[in-house]
Amino acid sequence: MKADDLVLFCDVVELGSFSRAAEVHNLTNSVVSKRIGKLEQTLDVQLLYRSTRKLRMSEAGQKLLEHAQRVKQATSGAEEAVRDLGQTVTGQIKMSVPTISGELVLAEAVADFCRLHPGLHVDMSLENRFVDLFDEGMDLVIRTGYLEDSSMIARHLIDAQWIVCASPLYLSSKSRPRTPQQLTEHNCLLYTYQATGSNEWAFKDHNSPYAVVVNGNFSTNNAGVLKRAAIAGHGIVYIPRCLVYNELQRGELVDLFPTEVAKKLGIYAAYPYTKQPLKKITLLIEHIRLAYQKIAHTF
After folding, report:
1. Total-model pTM
2. To which protein family does this belong (predicted)?
3. Residue 67 sits in a domain of what CATH number?
């Protein structure tokens, strides 16, 4: 069977006549009849019962139609995708991204994407709260964590490993914790980017997860502020490694438990579910993914 014959069969059924399908495909009635006949011969079944007034499908025809419709949809989608490559990327994109990703990767990556496509304007908001795409009219969001909303299409970009770290200044004034459980004896600065759980730090022991409940005298929902407080020696922090990678390399911060921290969150690009996503969205997502991959070693 050929895909174009299945598409033709689908159109004959949906349009209700050979002549209408012939017009759509710019063919003669006899050619349409021969191709449907050849399809029946190939399958060794009768697909259509023909009369002077109407067509009626056989049981085999009804079964084939289900598959033919999927072939038609896939063919149409492929044609649109290829045709779309020649179109100019213009218009607007409204997107929301987490503060860390925005400052670390996306500010430069998205601005560069706009440079590559002068007819495009991107409005990017940096915020850690959960953004509803539909209620707030977002075209695209970058999210960290687990995605359960079936009304969205999500593409995985990278995984972010978290670490526990402190400055040499803090460690020189306190005894360095040798086990995660000893963190309860220290001043742990809390990152309150989520509503709950900021003081429950996740660890693993031979791949068995457990949590340590910590306390401290300072908390903030801004990761950059938390990093500066840690560098200044005010306490221990639980934070994405990518945010402090350079400070770790310079020795301004020390990774206390390199193999025991269990927290690793996926970073995703998500957009509303559509049969055929807009080219500007898919191109921007790929541009962002490549930007993350360039600094994947920091994650």
Report:
1. 0.66
2. Belongs to the LysR transcriptional regulatory family.
3. 1.10.10.10
